Each structure stands twice: as structure tokens, then as C-alpha cells.
Amino acid sequence: MRIVFLLSAWLLSFGVMAAPGDMATLDRSTWPEQLSNPTLFDVASRAEILMFARVLLASESLDEPALAQRLGLRTINMESINRVRQRLWQRLLANYNFAQQSCDQDASFCFLVEDMPSLREQAGKFQVSEDSYYIRWAEPSRLFHSQYLDEQLRKAALFPQTSSEIDRFGDYERNGEAMHDRLFLLTFDSAANALPDNTAWVSEFLRKANMSGTFFVLGKDIQARLTERSVASLQSTYSAQCVGVQGWEFRSHSHWQDWQDSVRRSVELIKSKLPENYVPLFRPPDGQRRSDAEGFFKAQGLQVALWDIDAQDGAGKLKASQSAQRVLTLMLLWRHGVIDFNVKQDGVKTALPWLMTQTSQSGIGWEDCQSGFR
Question: Which residue numbers delimit the NodB homology domain (predicted)?
């Protein structure tokens, strides 16, 4: 059996960081095993959890000025950062507890973790030895999690002045944290660009796989489609899928004076044209929404639909293969959640099939879109 050894001298390597704005991705070929059964999914999951816990713990040694410099920000909201860190630790502990249930079948990356102090202790000691079967994965994974942590802490540092998916404003907002272990929900954003629109391709791919996803649409896009094709054609495109709204157009709903009208008009249009597909969900473009909107959304019967796992395929910074590998790595880390793809990037036609192939025997499940945010 392959053994992962513990070494303690690793603090210095944490200082090598990507510049602010770099998106984390990990070449999954550095991991030596296919996720060909649930036990091997757990092995890879334990490894990613411990690596992320290691860099998270090391980040706590930075004082506020040093952390601000690291994140490329002049000022940071430490209260928000600490709240997000605490939630991250809670998720890591819960996920490791799930992942270690198969340790009697494969003991790789299995250490004594019973509570938060023991998780932090193991994170502080975690290192992969030079003669380990997993050594090719270790440094690329460390770099990935360091970059990914910076992404999360940067969003936390700006919250709530700049809202994002990093935190919720109340129970009327949902992400994937409450989902069951090994369950994931596919969601697709529209984004600002009009073309290419891969909705028809993605929805057909999902139907053939007997799967469903939630498509968050822009009101103006649906209106434009209806000038070119019939309602029946539109309904056929979204057959067996769910449709939520992203507003009338893709712009921040945190400072837009007409944001309420944007949401209402979109809901009215989708409910009237796609009544079988409509779900009462609003996804804020770029995660930006107002902190005082609870009354409005409850009056409209809507929930704000956030996400946990971002493919980062809309910014043009990652290739399709990089987005797919990022998503898989985060699936191993978080073990459940809402995945966010951009349906208006051609990369989704490469990333989605690759992801299905890689996870087909891993023991994960894909949540039905009708129940995903409940």
C-alpha cells in the first residue's frame, strides 16, 4: 500500500504566489490514478482537502497589512475574511470525515482527524515525500490551492461592498453547501456576449445523458429568440431542463437603479413562455446583488441562486481543458455543490463531456434540476 509521509518543513514554499487575478487550475494528469471507483474518488478527495487545509492554515500567519499586500488590495474586510475562513474550515472537516469512511479500503492520505484541532494539526504537518507515488501531483496541487485560496480571500476581503458568491446575505440565498455528499448540480450562466450560444447543444447533451441542468437566462436574449423562432421551438430547446433568470441584461444588479424591474420582467417572460421549465431562481450576474433585497425577493417568491464551483470559463483566461480540470479538482475538494459553467463559451462543449467521462465511475451523483436548490 502506498504511504504518504508527513514532514513539517513547508512554510517557506507558501510564499510563492500567483499575481492577483490569476485563475487556479490543475493539470489532473499529475494525479496518478483514474477515479475509477468511489474509493479512489475518496483518496483524491482526501489529498485535495489536506492540501487546501495546509495553505489555508499557513495564510492565517499573515497579519492584515501582509494579507492585503498578498491579495493586491489596499484595504480588506478582516471580519468578512475571518467569517469565510471559519466556514471553509467547517466544510473541510465535514468533507474529510466523509472522505475517510473508505480508509479501510485504501489508507492513502488517511490520518487521525476527529475534530477541528486534529484537522488543523494534520494540515500543519502535511507534506508528500519525494519517493511518494503522488509526488508529481504535490507541487502543482499546492500552487492550485494557493491560487484558489487567494481567489476566495480576495472576494471575502471585498464583501459586502462588492458582493459575490463568497457569502450569503440571508436564508433566501442558496448555494450548494447544504447538498448531500457526492451530489452536484449543473448550472449554466448566459453572460454578456450574445454569441456563441451553446444552449441547444448543452441541453441536448444532458438529455442524451438522462441529466438535467439549470439554465439562467437573460430576458432580452429570450425576447430576441422569440423574434426568430416560435415558442414551441424555444420550449423544445429547454425540454427536460430548468430555466431561472439572470435579469433582463447581464449587468451588476447591486447598483443598477432598475434592477427590480430587470428581475420582474424576466420572470414574467419566462413564466409565460416556458412554464414547464421555469424555476423561481435568480442568479445575479457576477454574483453582484444588493444586501437589502430580501423583502423584494421574498415578495416575488424568488430565491437567489449562488454557486460553489466556478469553471472560470467566461473570462477567457482558462482554456476549456483547464476549466474542466479546475471543476474536477474543486469537486474533489468540496465533494458536493453547485457547478457554474458559461453556456456562451465554446469551451463548455469540451469541458462537459470530459467531466462526465472522468467521473462516470467515481460514485458521484448529479442532482435533478427541479430539486437542486431546495
Answer: 179-303
Written as one letter, the residue type at 29 is S
Q: Do 109 and 178 reside in the same domain of the chain?
A: no
User: How many CB atoms sit inside 10 A of residue 246's CB?
Assistant: 25
3-state DSSP helix/strand/coil % of the chain, to nearest 5: 45, 10, 45
Structural domain harbouring 260: 173-366
Q: What counts of helices (H) and strands (E) characterise the chain?
A: 12, 9
For residues 237 and 346, state if they share a domain: yes
Q: Specify whether 181 is located in the same domain as 252.
A: yes
Beta-bridge mates of residue 186 = 339
Same domain, 132 and 178: no
Q: From CA 271, how far away is CA 370, in angstroms rounded? A: 15
Per-residue 3-state assignment (H helix, E strand, C coil) for 87-147:
HHHHHHHHHHHHHHHHCCCCCCCCCCCCCHHHHHHHHHHCCCCCCCCCHHHHHHHHHHHHH
Phi, psi of 321 (to 5 degrees): -65, -35
Within a domain: residue 2? no
* Residue 370 pLDDT > 60: yes
